[in-house]
Protein backbone atom coordinates (compact mmCIF):
# COMPACT_ATOMS: atom_id res chain seq x y z
CA UNK A 1 0.00 0.00 0.00
CA UNK A 2 1.30 3.46 -0.74
CA UNK A 3 2.19 5.85 2.10
CA UNK A 4 -0.80 8.13 1.49
CA UNK A 5 -3.29 5.27 1.80
CA UNK A 6 -1.57 4.05 4.99
CA UNK A 7 -1.58 7.51 6.58
CA UNK A 8 -5.26 7.95 5.73
CA UNK A 9 -6.07 4.97 7.97
CA UNK A 10 -4.76 6.89 11.01
CA UNK A 11 -7.48 8.47 13.19
CA UNK A 12 -5.69 11.80 12.90
CA UNK A 13 -6.70 12.11 9.24
CA UNK A 14 -10.16 10.57 9.46
CA UNK A 15 -12.75 12.83 7.90
CA UNK A 16 -10.27 15.24 6.30
CA UNK A 17 -10.65 16.10 2.61
CA UNK A 18 -7.68 15.66 0.27
CA UNK A 19 -6.51 19.25 0.53
CA UNK A 20 -6.49 19.22 4.34
CA UNK A 21 -4.85 15.79 4.33
CA UNK A 22 -2.02 17.11 2.14
CA UNK A 23 -1.55 20.19 4.33
CA UNK A 24 -1.47 18.24 7.61
CA UNK A 25 0.65 15.36 6.33
CA UNK A 26 3.18 17.70 4.74
CA UNK A 27 3.80 19.28 8.15
CA UNK A 28 4.99 15.90 9.44
CA UNK A 29 8.58 14.73 9.47
CA UNK A 30 9.81 11.23 8.68
CA UNK A 31 11.82 9.00 10.98
CA UNK A 32 13.40 5.60 10.40
CA UNK A 33 14.15 3.26 13.33
CA UNK A 34 16.33 0.19 13.14
CA UNK A 35 15.06 -3.05 14.63
CA UNK A 36 15.42 -2.88 18.42
CA UNK A 37 15.86 0.91 18.54
CA UNK A 38 14.05 2.74 21.38
CA UNK A 39 12.11 5.80 20.21
CA UNK A 40 11.31 7.02 23.72
CA UNK A 41 11.27 5.69 27.27
CA UNK A 42 8.44 5.58 29.76
CA UNK A 43 8.84 8.74 31.84
CA UNK A 44 10.42 10.89 29.08
CA UNK A 45 8.78 14.19 28.28
CA UNK A 46 7.00 14.11 24.95
CA UNK A 47 5.74 16.69 22.50
CA UNK A 48 5.32 14.68 19.33
CA UNK A 49 2.88 12.10 18.08
CA UNK A 50 3.66 9.39 15.57
CA UNK A 51 1.99 7.37 12.83
CA UNK A 52 3.51 4.04 11.79
CA UNK A 53 3.99 3.88 8.02
CA UNK A 54 5.94 0.64 7.84
CA UNK A 55 7.14 -2.01 10.29
CA UNK A 56 6.07 -3.02 13.78
CA UNK A 57 6.62 -1.25 17.07
CA UNK A 58 5.91 -2.34 20.65
CA UNK A 59 4.69 -0.23 23.57
CA UNK A 60 5.78 -1.57 26.94
CA UNK A 61 5.99 -0.73 30.61
CA UNK A 62 8.30 -1.95 33.32
CA UNK A 63 6.79 -3.20 36.55
CA UNK A 64 8.33 -2.61 39.98
CA UNK A 65 10.16 -5.94 39.67
CA UNK A 66 11.73 -4.87 36.38
CA UNK A 67 9.60 -7.27 34.33
CA UNK A 68 8.26 -5.86 31.11
CA UNK A 69 4.61 -5.86 30.12
CA UNK A 70 3.55 -5.09 26.55
CA UNK A 71 0.45 -2.95 26.13
CA UNK A 72 0.35 -3.02 22.35
CA UNK A 73 2.12 -3.97 19.16
CA UNK A 74 1.43 -1.42 16.45
CA UNK A 75 1.65 -1.66 12.68
CA UNK A 76 1.06 0.52 9.61
CA UNK A 77 -1.68 3.15 9.97
CA UNK A 78 -1.63 3.12 13.77
CA UNK A 79 -0.88 6.19 15.85
CA UNK A 80 0.68 6.70 19.26
CA UNK A 81 2.28 9.31 21.50
CA UNK A 82 -0.80 11.54 21.85
CA UNK A 83 -1.44 10.98 25.58
CA UNK A 84 1.30 13.32 26.73
CA UNK A 85 -0.04 15.99 24.35
CA UNK A 86 -3.58 15.95 25.77
CA UNK A 87 -2.59 15.23 29.33
CA UNK A 88 0.79 16.94 29.66
CA UNK A 89 3.02 14.58 31.55
CA UNK A 90 5.61 11.88 31.02
CA UNK A 91 5.37 9.24 28.28
CA UNK A 92 3.26 6.39 29.60
CA UNK A 93 5.14 3.63 27.77
CA UNK A 94 8.48 2.83 26.18
CA UNK A 95 8.29 2.59 22.37
CA UNK A 96 10.68 0.10 20.74
CA UNK A 97 10.95 -0.94 17.09
CA UNK A 98 10.25 -4.68 16.73
CA UNK A 99 11.32 -4.51 13.07
CA UNK A 100 12.83 -1.68 11.06
CA UNK A 101 10.17 1.06 11.20
CA UNK A 102 9.25 4.09 9.15
CA UNK A 103 7.25 6.68 11.12
CA UNK A 104 5.69 10.07 10.47
CA UNK A 105 6.13 12.60 13.29
CA UNK A 106 3.88 15.52 14.18
CA UNK A 107 5.00 18.23 16.60
CA UNK A 108 2.48 19.29 19.23
CA UNK A 109 2.82 22.90 18.05
CA UNK A 110 1.90 21.86 14.48
CA UNK A 111 -1.13 19.90 15.68
CA UNK A 112 -2.55 22.71 17.88
CA UNK A 113 -4.04 24.87 15.07
CA UNK A 114 -5.70 21.80 13.53
CA UNK A 115 -7.33 20.89 16.83
CA UNK A 116 -8.68 24.41 17.13
CA UNK A 117 -9.74 24.82 13.48
CA UNK A 118 -10.86 21.39 12.26
CA UNK A 119 -13.28 19.47 14.50
CA UNK A 120 -12.70 16.34 12.34
CA UNK A 121 -9.13 16.12 13.64
CA UNK A 122 -10.20 16.44 17.29
CA UNK A 123 -12.97 13.89 16.64
CA UNK A 124 -10.54 11.41 15.11
CA UNK A 125 -8.22 11.69 18.10
CA UNK A 126 -11.11 11.38 20.58
CA UNK A 127 -12.24 8.27 18.68
CA UNK A 128 -8.81 6.73 19.13
CA UNK A 129 -8.80 7.52 22.87
CA UNK A 130 -12.28 6.06 23.32
CA UNK A 131 -11.35 2.90 21.40
CA UNK A 132 -8.24 2.47 23.48
CA UNK A 133 -10.18 2.83 26.74
CA UNK A 134 -12.62 0.14 25.58
CA UNK A 135 -9.71 -2.13 24.75
CA UNK A 136 -7.97 -1.43 28.06
CA UNK A 137 -11.21 -2.35 29.87
CA UNK A 138 -11.34 -5.64 27.95
CA UNK A 139 -7.72 -6.36 28.87
CA UNK A 140 -8.45 -5.78 32.58
CA UNK A 141 -11.54 -8.02 32.42
CA UNK A 142 -9.57 -10.73 30.63
CA UNK A 143 -6.83 -10.60 33.27
CA UNK A 144 -9.49 -11.17 35.91
CA UNK A 145 -11.87 -13.56 34.15
CA UNK A 146 -9.93 -15.40 31.39
CA UNK A 147 -7.34 -18.13 31.73
CA UNK A 148 -3.94 -17.88 30.02
CA UNK A 149 -4.88 -20.03 26.96
CA UNK A 150 -7.92 -17.78 26.41
CA UNK A 151 -5.73 -14.67 26.56
CA UNK A 152 -3.15 -16.24 24.23
CA UNK A 153 -5.90 -17.04 21.70
CA UNK A 154 -7.23 -13.48 21.96
CA UNK A 155 -3.79 -11.91 21.56
CA UNK A 156 -3.09 -14.03 18.46
CA UNK A 157 -6.45 -13.10 16.91
CA UNK A 158 -5.78 -9.42 17.62
CA UNK A 159 -2.39 -9.69 15.89
CA UNK A 160 -4.05 -11.64 13.06
CA UNK A 161 -6.60 -8.87 12.52
CA UNK A 162 -3.78 -6.46 11.71
CA UNK A 163 -0.92 -8.57 10.44
CA UNK A 164 -2.66 -11.72 9.17
CA UNK A 165 -2.46 -12.84 5.57
CA UNK A 166 -4.94 -15.35 4.23
CA UNK A 167 -3.15 -18.08 2.29
CA UNK A 168 -4.27 -21.52 1.13
CA UNK A 169 -2.30 -22.90 4.13
CA UNK A 170 -4.25 -20.82 6.67
CA UNK A 171 -4.07 -17.38 8.21
CA UNK A 172 -0.36 -16.53 8.41
CA UNK A 173 0.48 -13.98 11.10
CA UNK A 174 4.00 -12.54 10.92
CA UNK A 175 3.94 -10.98 14.37
CA UNK A 176 7.77 -10.83 14.60
CA UNK A 177 7.61 -11.30 18.38
CA UNK A 178 9.78 -13.65 20.43
CA UNK A 179 8.02 -16.08 22.78
CA UNK A 180 9.11 -13.84 25.65
CA UNK A 181 7.44 -10.83 24.00
CA UNK A 182 4.27 -12.82 23.34
CA UNK A 183 4.22 -13.72 27.03
CA UNK A 184 4.68 -10.03 27.95
CA UNK A 185 1.74 -9.17 25.71
CA UNK A 186 -0.48 -11.78 27.35
CA UNK A 187 0.68 -10.90 30.88
CA UNK A 188 1.78 -14.40 31.86
CA UNK A 189 5.02 -16.35 32.22
CA UNK A 190 6.81 -17.62 29.14
CA UNK A 191 6.37 -21.21 30.32
CA UNK A 192 2.57 -20.92 30.65
CA UNK A 193 2.23 -19.17 27.29
CA UNK A 194 4.46 -21.77 25.59
CA UNK A 195 2.32 -24.52 27.08
CA UNK A 196 -0.85 -22.93 25.72
CA UNK A 197 0.72 -22.51 22.28
CA UNK A 198 1.97 -26.11 22.25
CA UNK A 199 -1.50 -27.30 23.23
CA UNK A 200 -3.14 -25.32 20.39
CA UNK A 201 -0.55 -26.75 17.97
CA UNK A 202 -1.16 -30.31 19.21
CA UNK A 203 -4.90 -29.86 18.60
CA UNK A 204 -4.16 -28.72 15.04
CA UNK A 205 -5.54 -25.21 15.60
CA UNK A 206 -2.30 -23.50 14.60
CA UNK A 207 1.25 -24.07 13.45
CA UNK A 208 4.13 -22.37 15.26
CA UNK A 209 7.06 -20.86 13.40
CA UNK A 210 9.77 -18.53 14.67
CA UNK A 211 8.25 -15.04 14.95
CA UNK A 212 5.09 -16.09 13.14
CA UNK A 213 2.14 -18.38 13.55
CA UNK A 214 -0.30 -19.89 11.06
CA UNK A 215 -3.86 -20.14 12.33
CA UNK A 216 -5.41 -23.28 10.87
CA UNK A 217 -8.73 -23.39 12.72
CA UNK A 218 -10.01 -19.85 13.11
CA UNK A 219 -13.39 -20.92 14.47
CA UNK A 220 -11.94 -22.92 17.37
CA UNK A 221 -9.44 -20.13 18.14
CA UNK A 222 -12.31 -17.63 18.20
CA UNK A 223 -14.28 -19.85 20.54
CA UNK A 224 -11.28 -20.28 22.84
CA UNK A 225 -10.74 -16.52 22.95
CA UNK A 226 -14.27 -15.84 24.18
P1 LIG B 1 2.27 8.86 25.40
O1 LIG B 1 2.01 8.60 26.83
O2 LIG B 1 2.51 10.22 24.94
O3 LIG B 1 3.49 7.93 24.95
C1 LIG B 1 3.31 6.53 25.01
C2 LIG B 1 2.13 6.17 24.15
O4 LIG B 1 1.74 4.81 24.20
C3 LIG B 1 0.87 6.88 24.65
O5 LIG B 1 1.04 8.26 24.52
C4 LIG B 1 -0.18 6.21 23.83
O6 LIG B 1 -0.21 6.74 22.52
C5 LIG B 1 0.37 4.78 23.78
N1 LIG B 1 -0.36 3.93 24.73
C6 LIG B 1 -0.41 4.04 26.07
N2 LIG B 1 -1.18 3.08 26.61
C7 LIG B 1 -1.63 2.32 25.59
C8 LIG B 1 -2.48 1.16 25.50
N3 LIG B 1 -3.00 0.59 26.58
N4 LIG B 1 -2.74 0.66 24.26
C9 LIG B 1 -2.20 1.23 23.17
N5 LIG B 1 -1.39 2.32 23.19
C10 LIG B 1 -1.12 2.86 24.38
UniProtKB/TrEMBL annotation:
Gene3D superfamilies: Jelly Rolls, Winged helix-like DNA-binding domain superfamily/Winged helix DNA-binding domain. The keyword tRNA processing does not apply. Transmembrane segments: none annotated. Coiled coil: none annotated. Pfam families: cNMP_binding (PF00027), HTH_Crp_2 (PF13545). Keywords: DNA-binding, Transcription, Transcription regulation. It comes from the Bacteria. Residues 146-219 form the HTH crp-type domain. Residues 12-132 form the Cyclic nucleotide-binding domain. PROSITE patterns: CNMP_BINDING_3 (PS50042), HTH_CRP_2 (PS51063). SUPFAM superfamilies: cAMP-binding domain-like (SSF51206), Winged helix' DNA-binding domain (SSF46785). This is Crp/Fnr family transcriptional regulator. It comes from Ammonicoccus fulvus. The lineage of its organism: Bacteria, Bacillati, Actinomycetota, Actinomycetes, Propionibacteriales.
Amino acid sequence: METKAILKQAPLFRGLDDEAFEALSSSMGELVLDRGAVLFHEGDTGNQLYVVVDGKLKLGRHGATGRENLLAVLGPGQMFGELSLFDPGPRSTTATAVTKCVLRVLENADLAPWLAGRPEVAKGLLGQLAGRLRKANDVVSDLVFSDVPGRVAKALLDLAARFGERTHNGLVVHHELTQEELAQLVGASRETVNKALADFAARGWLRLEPRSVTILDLERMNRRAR
